[in-house]
Write a structure and sequence with these properties.
The complex is a heterodimer of chains A (109) and B (189).
Chain A: H1 8-20, H2 26-37, H3 43-55, E1 59-63, E2 76-80, H4 82-99
Antiparallel strand pairs in A: 1-2
Chain B: H1 3-12, H2 17-38, H3 40-99, H4 102-107, H5 109-130, H6 135-152, H7 161-185
Classes of the chains: A mainly alpha (109), B mainly alpha (189).
């Protein structure tokens, strides 16, 4: 299957889901994305992006048990799929290709 | 905006129950943490800003998910509701203008505006009821079509402020109708 392309915000969300591992749920992803992009992202934007990534098969989700601090509501947790990991690697490779041979120094890891 | 109101708005945008619960639960959880760290006022302001900034993305996602069929359903319902309200409003206006003069009518323009806005609420409710995909979106679409219509057809007898007031208030009035319908659709846990 060809790799699914992701936009900039989708990539940020995907990377945060990957970084958070078992703790990846809506609010945690929103906070992580906001911290990395240095702007307060809306919960609506994050969830619609997560939904889109799930539709593309790049993340999968499930519902946790309800908790009192959430008014008896459940968390929606997320995890990367193999296709999601491939999409991150492809995005990284694309950026490296774009930077290769450029006069400015590449400071990425 | 309370979380209960947000629940109604998200229902009106056809956001499914699981996603609604996840969004509201997240906001509640983050609000509690923020209130403990920076005070209730700051936490409430933050939550209101989150809600308002989330609505465009969620509305866009609803339309994108439904595709052309959703758009047709929303605007079809809006148009049908607008036509129904226009027929009733025109019939009642014909009766009123036959019994009282245009000058008298102009003096009671504020009453006429209130009646038109009540028709707006009814139209919004009807559009929301007919447009099953996203009730609130159908109601707002009905109001927007009404505003467009009022730009080309306004009562000659009415004072200058009347069409402007109607154009400003019609969409909120139809949104109230849509909200009333969405409230009926919210299933309490």
């Amino acid at each position: 299957m060809p790799p699914r392309s992701v936009g900039e915000f989708e990539l940020a969300v995907l990377l945060c889901v990957s970084l958070l591992g078992d703790d990846a749920y809506g609010a945690a992803v929103r906070r992580a994305v906001s911290e990395r992009l240095k702007r307060d992202c809306s919960v609506g934007a994050v969830y619609t992006t997560l939904q889109r990534l799930e539709d593309k098969g790049l993340v999968e989700s499930w519902v946790s048990d309800p908790t009192p601090v959430r008014g008896g509501r459940a968390r929606r947790c997320f995890a990367m799929t193999a296709a999601g990991n491939r999409a991150i690697r492809d995005a990284q490779a694309t950026v490296r290709r774009l930077w290769s041979g450029h006069g400015l120094r590449w400071s990425g890891a | 905006m309370s979380l209960r109101l947000l629940d109604v708005v998200l229902t009106g945008l056809n956001v499914d129950r699981g996603l609604r619960d996840a969004i509201i639960g997240d906001l509640l959880e983050e609000r509690t943490a923020l209130a403990a760290a920076r005070g209730t006022r700051f936490a409430d302001r933050w939550m209101l800003s989150q809600i308002l900034r989330s609505l465009p993305a969620l509305a866009q996602a609803t339309l994108r998910a439904g595709g052309t069929r959703a758009m047709a359903s929303i605007f079809g319902a809006a148009l049908a509701a607008l036509l129904a309200v226009l027929i009733v409003a025109s019939a009642s206006a014909a009766v009123v203008f036959n019994t009282i003069s245009a000058q008298t009518m102009a003096r009671f323009a504020i009453v006429a505006l209130a009646v038109d806005l009540a028709y707006g609420v009814a139209g919004g409710y009807l559009a929301a009821r007919l447009g099953g995909v996203a009730p609130l979106a159908s109601a707002v679409a009905c109001g927007s079509l009404g505003v467009m219509l009022s730009l080309v057809a306004t009562g000659q007898a009415m004072p200058g402020w009347y069409p402007l007031a109607l154009q400003l208030l019609l969409v909120p009035a139809t949104a109230v109708g849509g909200w009333m319908r969405a409230r009926q659709l919210v299933v309490r846990p």
